[in-house]
Amino acid sequence: MSQEHAGTESLENLLHETRSFPPPADFAARANVTASAYEDAARDREQFWARQARELLSWSTDFTEVLDFSGAPVARWFGDGRLNAAYNAVDRHVEAGHGERVAIHFEGEPGDTRTITYADLKDEVSRAANALTDLGVRTGDRVAIYLPLVPEAVIAMLACARVGAAHSVVFGGFSAEALHARIIDAEARVVVTADGGYRRGKAMALKPAVDEAIAKGGTPVEHVLVVRRTGQDTAMTDGRDVWWDDTVATASAEHEPVAVDAENPLFILYTSGTTGKPKGIMHTTGGFLTQTAYTVRAVFDLKPETDVYWCTADVGWVTGHSYVTYGPLVNGATQVLYEGTPDTPDKDRWWQIVAKYGVTILYTAPTAIRTAMKWGEELPGRHDLSSLRLLGSVGEPINPEAWMWYRRVIGGDRAPVVDTWWQTETGAIMISPLPGVTAAKPGSAQTPLPGISADVLDEAGQPVPDGHGGYLVLTEPWPAMLRGIWGDPQRYQDTYWSRFPGKYFAGDGAKKDEDGDVWLLGRVDDVMNISGHRLSTTEIESALVSHPVVAEAAVVGAKDDTTGQAVVAFVILRAEAVERADEEGEGADVVAELRNHVAKEIGPIAKPRSILVVAELPKTRSGKIMRRLLRDVAEGRPAGDVTTLADSSVMEQISTGMSG
Ligand code: WT7
């Protein structure tokens, strides 16, 4: 057995990865989806998706059009059909006699639990929909949701969908500043939040950030709906703020879901791009639900009667939208929702939860797997994990050794592992093994799903032959694709469709192996991937230069054994600040202050791991910062080719500063 170490593999190592694990025979025999799905989809892609849309969803008006790409790059799927997302996720399961099935096993971080059946969920979502309506929310509006990972987050999302309003969920770890920008961009008139949530054993306040965001001004917010989670003291503004307990809990549990057009916006979700301003990725209803529901069936092999499904993502990220709220519930799944961190109160909390609820399908991120590896296999070893029958990974390339550890230690060398590639923009899984079909290779997402077309292109836009690397593109529209960037159609065109005309450029590097299987190699743009979360180098640079002591900043993602990448910043201080630091020995304070400043501007997840104060930054003659050279320094290598630098001595100064 080769050594098991954490960290991102080099391309060289990946090329030598030859292990492969065919599906166990009993798994393959009972799999929801078999190899014939590829043939079905290849015969007629559009009819394949139309079939999924009709089999997996209930439409109040059936569609006659499948795909209309005449407005490319904006697609319309099932355009003349009508449906309601909350009805599909909740009501119809109750109508089908499954009201007593558990929809959500909630486990709070302090150990409190709630069991929510589909019948309960229908009542809760209906009440919340009535309460939102009373607060003035109408079909076509936007509602911001800023909550910890509690059932009300899922309920609020579904309540928006029920009235035909789009939600914009803002991760609870984002700052008031980030929330403010997102509220304004989406023009949200209502914010749903909580007094606080539990994180590492502490009650962390959330509501004050909403107050601060609104106090900054310029938001159209009329009401704030506040869930009581921690019971901590919370300031409420008269006439604006209302408690969930006073409004939702007392509202009627009767509510007629509003049937909307298939292309009605379901949600906006902000993600970092290569420039400072986050992009509001817009998803609509029919296509998004079709593909999320299909992938839960096909990739996770979900059997709603017997499986207990757990996706560990927060609803603040796309994984929580597609694989906590919509995909599983549309399938009528029973799922676990856990509020807190994996190490509270102890580092075996996740494994305790798997054993307690008999989780059969686990979907998580490589960074979590590598952290568990670091903590040691003795911890999962304390618990009975034999219920697990399928393991999924998402968020960043999974290094083969983490994949092997996941399979052996968590999956008992028995459960298939599926490495699923997708993005906020794709809405649903695009490239992944099928667990009952594919002989899985550790570290490879392998094959575009049935009905999905992807390729790897060279610089000139030609498909690379097997055994070569290039840029990952999607060559045909897919049902869950984004319909654009909220309020900025030009940016949608420029970001995704201009690098290779007519093809969707994902921003990832990839390689095809000798079998034609796809291996993802990470981002090729100025986007970093920290613990599976996307952060933009320029966004953090803007945050740094917004601090009065900073003259200039450059940020890079440096390789990190646990988080995949870590944020490393290089800053040039203003002359006054340098003098002050020299005189008063405040150098360390400045770095601490800047780290906190980034947390305040964006959120704690964006805090640089290290900040280096430098005198100059490496720039080309045209003034572009050469991040490649800074990455060399941040990863402890000698700087590469410096011949295109305007001043070639700059790198020497920086490297000397590093070692000095
Ligand atoms: C970026 C998308 C998809 C939900 C979580 C992240 C990277 C995602 C994989 C994977 C290699 C992956 C890509 C992609 N990524 N999954 N299985 N293998 N890389 O969503 O924040 O929109 O980020 O995450 O770089 O472009 P996101």
From TrEMBL:
EC numbers, comma separated: 6.2.1.1
Domain AMP-dependent synthetase/ligase span(s) in chain numbering: 96-486
GO molecular function: acetate-CoA ligase activity
Binding site for ATP: G395, E396, P397, D419, T420, W421, W422, Q423, T424, D508, R523, R534
Residues that coordinate or bind Mg(2+): V545, H547, V550
Cross-referenced InterPro entries: Ac_CoA_lig (IPR011904), ACAS_N (IPR032387), AMP-bd_C (IPR025110), AMP-bd_C_sf (IPR045851), AMP-binding_CS (IPR020845), AMP-dep_synth/lig_dom (IPR000873), ANL_N_sf (IPR042099)
List of residues binding CoA: R199, R200, G201, K202, T319, S531
PTM entry text: Acetylated. Deacetylation by the SIR2-homolog deacetylase activates the enzyme.
Protein name in the entry: Acetyl-coenzyme A synthetase
